[in-house]
Amino acid sequence: MDINTLKEGRKLLTEYKYELGKLDKGYTDRSLYINISENKIDSKPVTQMMKDKFVGGKGFGLWYLWNGTTPTTKWNDPENEIIICGGPVCGITQYPGSGKSLVCSISPMTNIPIDSNVGGYFGPLLKFAGWDALELQGKAEKDIIIYIDGNKGVITIEEAPLEAIDSHVLAEQLTEMYADNEADKRNVSVVTAGTGAEHAKMGLLNFSLYDTRRKVTRFKQAGRGGIGRVFRDKKVKAIVVKFSGVKGNLNNPVDQAIINKAGIKMHKEMHNLDDKQNRMRKVGTGYSVEIMSAYDLLPVMNYQYGGHEDAKKIGPDILINNYLTQGLEDGCWYGCSMACAKTADNFELQTGPYKGQRVTVDGPEYETTAGVGSNCGIFDPRAILEINFYCDTYGIDTISFGTSTAFVMECYTRGIINKEITGGLDLKFGNFEASVELLHQMSRGEGFGVVVGQGIHQMKKIFSEEYGADPDFLFDIGMEQKGLEYSEYGSKESLAQQGGFGLTNKGPQHDEAWLIFMDMVNNQIPTFEDKAEALYYFPMFRTWFGLYGLCKLPWNDIVPEGNKYTSEPAKIPEHVQNYLDVVYGVTGKRLNTTDMVRESERVYNFQRIFNIRLGKGLRANDRVPYRSMGPVTKEEYESRQERYDGQLKEILGYDTEGKSTEEKMAVLRKHRENQYEKLIDAVYARRGWNSNGVPTLERLKDLGMDLPILVDVVKDLQ
């Protein structure tokens, strides 16, 4: 359908004009509020209190979400919000990974706040258009598109009945519609979901960037927690921002020179070291597949196993030599020399409504390759790329899709479900055709795909109540916690990583604490106290990226040559100093490492209390499926029998001679579950929480977060 026809189908619902304003030290000092139930658009002041206690990014998102909702708000209530905020550093062009924004909402998967970080151009362009954050509330009656013109100072809400829904089509339509010419397309960014997000709770949001070399609209994803489902439930088809005139000093920084210096140093490291270390500029995060398999950490067949002889078939060399375009600058924001946003260009689709079309596939990232690939027993790169594309355009999170599909594949293999239940789908491990058909069913809103799209937490209930499955066994093998599917790392042999998944606020997502190598490979944190310290520092430090609008990858996916000789090599101290310099350069705040952690602690404890306000956030909610701790089945134990027998003898003094596998499994399980409970105690104490996981009043006061609204929630739980 041509652009003029699409325009003719539009109906203007409201228009809002605003003064363009100017950024100062990374802030516009206002946020954009849009209520689509009332077609209301307004400006809200960003207060000094917000900047002091919440900084930006995820902090602003949680603050607005708290104030916009109530203790009884559900994900599909009109008052639930979607907040997009980049943070004060977001948008600088000198330092790699400075284009991130954070998206917050009450999650359909977990029914508590979710935050998801995302690249692409939308976050920076929103800020340059004059807004520190976008707060979206209400529900439209019909599909709408919101348009923000950051050069003219005009915002519109329009009914949009004719545009596509799937992201790769819709983003191309809207980029063409709002750009003045080809060169202007890079000044347009679009947020979309897709037809899958209309039916599956694991729906995601795509944030676009226009690739001037490929002449195609590409995407980065706010994938976790189902925010795309909220987006489509509100009948938002897209949000579009346009701003021309991007340059390196638009944040009006305090000290441009120190930002430039840090950026030049980092760019040199990227140029000189990336090929020797992780090859991010050639394969992106997909470099991890063979490493994870070698260390028994790659999820295989629903996390039963940690490696596979066919992992090399989906490893980095295969992707580099056969699929991923090389030699282009693949950053998802200006100036990112890490350039990890790889693509497979001219990829011909074999299934679904776009069969036969040649498309650009963004990825695959490691999480996608492991999730929809090895975890489902699929070791075919073409199959992974096909699923990757359809997840993106349908608006489906690849992590939740892969982990949920792996779960149903194991249930199918074990006879818990059958073809009658799956609608004829032969959901055995390795069956690409059945896996991709689940995706197409999600898009159409039919068949067993709709069931899978609700996620593992809901499927466990259905399979036990309707099909008579053992709920305890489903809990053990269902790799979800708090309602969110696990990301793609096997944590059986790393107690610290079990805590890194289980003791998060939002569910088992590795962006808070990825400690497997510190714990399991390098043995840097041997005691409970060491592990507790790591599970205090790293979640707080990584939260800090989400407050300022920074990507975590330049921090530790490239390391300085002398890093191993520093006192704390796991923290990459030289890069931490870079971040402190950049933040000072933008905002004028002189922070040290203690200040960084305290800034994050304020927001982290706020989010914990937000969970408690919504009925979660206590020790019971930090329980994890046993498969994340150890072997659930006889096959799993015996696949690593020498290791497990050795551990029983050396750690517990248990004589394994003459013992059945089941007997040994029971002893090992008791030990590992006990270890996890001890870890919880140590981590809670280090974080300043009581034994039930509630922040103490003393800790809140120490952080300056003893706000009456927070104290009222936790005072009776002390």
List keywords for this structure.
single chain; 718 residues; Aldehyde Ferredoxin Oxidoreductase,  A, domain 1; Aldehyde Ferredoxin Oxidoreductase Protein, subunit A, domain 2; 3 domains; 7-stranded mixed β-sheet; 6-stranded mixed β-sheet; metal-binding; 4Fe-4S; oxidoreductase; Ald_Fedxn_OxRdtase_N; EC 1.2.7.5
3D structure, described in words:
- The longest helix has 27 residues, at 661-687.
- β16 (480-481) and β17 (484-485) form a beta hairpin.
- The N and C termini lie far apart (61 Å).
- The strands form 4 sheets. The chain has a 7-stranded mixed β-sheet with strand order 1-9-8-13-10-11-12.
- It contains 29 helices and 17 strands.
- The mean pLDDT is 96.
- By secondary structure, the chain is of the alpha+beta class.
- It is globular.
- It folds into 3 domains: 3-242, Aldehyde Ferredoxin Oxidoreductase,  A, domain 1 (4-Layer Sandwich), CATH 3.60.9.10; 275-485, Aldehyde Ferredoxin Oxidoreductase Protein, subunit A, domain 2 (Orthogonal Bundle), CATH 1.10.569.10; 495-549 and 598-717, Aldehyde Ferredoxin Oxidoreductase Protein, subunit A, domain 3, CATH 1.10.599.
